[in-house]
Amino acid sequence: MSLLALDAEALYAELLRGVRALCLPDTRLVGIRSGGAWLADRLHHDLSLTGSAGAISSAMHRDDFASRGLSAGGQTVLGFDVNGADIMVLDDVLYTGRTIRAVLNELFDYGRPARVRLAVLVDRGGRELPIQADFAAARVSLPSSQSLALAREEGDRFSFKVEDC
Questions:
Q1: Beta strand pairing status for 146-152 and 27-32?
Q2: What is the rounded distance in angstroms from the CA atom of residue 40 to the CA atom of residue 163?
Q3: What per-residue confidence (pLDDT) applies to 65?
Q4: pLDDT of residue 69
Q5: What is the chain's pLDDT, residue by residue, as a tens digit (165 residues)?
Q6: CA gap 132, 102 in Å, rounded
Q7: Among candidates 34, 96, 90, which has minimal Cα distance to 59?
Q8: Which of 62, 73, 96, 114 could tie 33 with a disulfide, CB 3.0–4.6 Å?
Q9: What one-character-per-residue DSSP string does the chain give?
Q10: Whole-angstrom distance, CA of residue 54 vs CA of residue 27
Q11: Structure confidence at residue 163 (pLDDT)
Q12: Burial of 30 (0-12, 13-18, 19+ CB in 10 A)
């Protein structure tokens, strides 16, 4: 898919269809701070789920914590027992897999889930770790010199930001 054709709202609709198909009645949505948490909140509402979506931070388990420190994105908030739970982790962009590795470590600090699946808005390839999404609304290619991030606009509408690194 061309980056010029990357419509975040259209991809969100595709993500909603994919997550709806993967969710069981007891599936818990957990979004990675910040873009994934925005997706989890909106999906939770659009799927009419009870309770609230969880939000998880990768900050404490990142392999580059010494250089990045704690981000201003927020802390982990899980309003349910992780032990035995069916968890759907949501993220905006899957790239190297390092954030997902850190999030899994954070999640297991809270307990042992029965199953963890991953759904992303965009998979941009470039994996450094053997991590794959169970569902990706789109797959795109970007040079490693660019970053792609979800932005939330007024009215909870999504768009993408592409920046040079």
A1: unpaired
A2: 24
A3: 52
A4: 55
A5: 445 558 999 999 999 999 999 999 999 999 999 899 999 999 999 999 988 999 999 988 877 655 555 555 689 999 999 999 999 999 999 999 999 999 999 999 999 999 999 999 999 999 999 999 999 999 999 999 999 999 999 888 999 998 888
A6: 14
A7: 34
A8: 73
A9: --GGG--HHHHHHHHHHHHHHH--TTEEEEEETTHHHHHHHHHHHHTT-SS--EEE--GGG-TTHHHH---TT---B--S--TT-EEEEEEEEESSSHHHHHHHHHHHHS---SEEEEEEEEE----SSS---SEEEEE----TTEEEEEEE-GGG-EEEEEEE-
A10: 11
A11: 87
A12: buried
Contact status, residue 51 vs residue 79, Cβ threshold 8 Å: yes
How far, in Å, CA of 93 to CA of 73, rounded?
Answer: 16
Q: Hey, what amino acid is at 71?
A: S
Q: How many angstroms separate the CA atoms of 149 and 75, rounded?
A: 19
Which of 5, 25, 33, 145 is CA-nearest to residue 90? 33
Max alpha carbon distance in the chain (Å)?
A: 42
Instruction: Read off the pTM.
Output: 0.91
What is the pairing mode between strands 54-56 and 115-123? unpaired
